[in-house]
C-alpha cells in the first residue's frame, strides 16, 4: 500500500526529542515514583480502606469530572470533605 504506516521508520531513542509532560510523562522513572507514592498512601491508610479516597475535580459548566489523585486520612486529622 501507499500510506504513512508503510513508510514508517522508527527513530532511535537517543535521537528522539525530550518527552513533553515533565514529571507526568509516561516513562519508567515517573511510573515507579508515582507507584511508590501510591503505595505510601495505601500504607498510611492501612488497614482501614475507608480512610483512602479518590479525589476528582469538576468543571461546573460542562458537568465533567477528572480524576486527580488519592488522599489518605489518619485518625484524628480531618474529614473527607476537609481533606
Describe this structure in words.
By secondary structure, the chain is α+β, with helices and mostly antiparallel strands. It has one helix at residues 28-45; strands at 52-59, 64-72. It is elongated, with a radius of gyration of 20 Å. 0% of the residues are buried.
Task: Give the SSE map.
Elements: H1 28-45, E1 52-59, E2 64-72
Antiparallel strand pairs: 1-2
Q: Quaternary arrangement of the chains shown?
A: single chain
Helix/strand structural class: alpha+beta
Which whole number gives the mean pLDDT? 77
SSE arrangement, N to C: HEE
Uncertain runs: none
The count of β-strands is 2
Radius of gyration: 20 Å
Beta-strand content estimate: 15-25%
Key terms:
2 strands; elongated; 83 residues; alpha+beta
Question: Can you describe this structure in just a few lines?
Answer:
With 83 residues, the chain is α+β, with helices and mostly antiparallel strands. 22% of the residues lie in helices and 20% in strands. The chain is built from one helix and two strands.
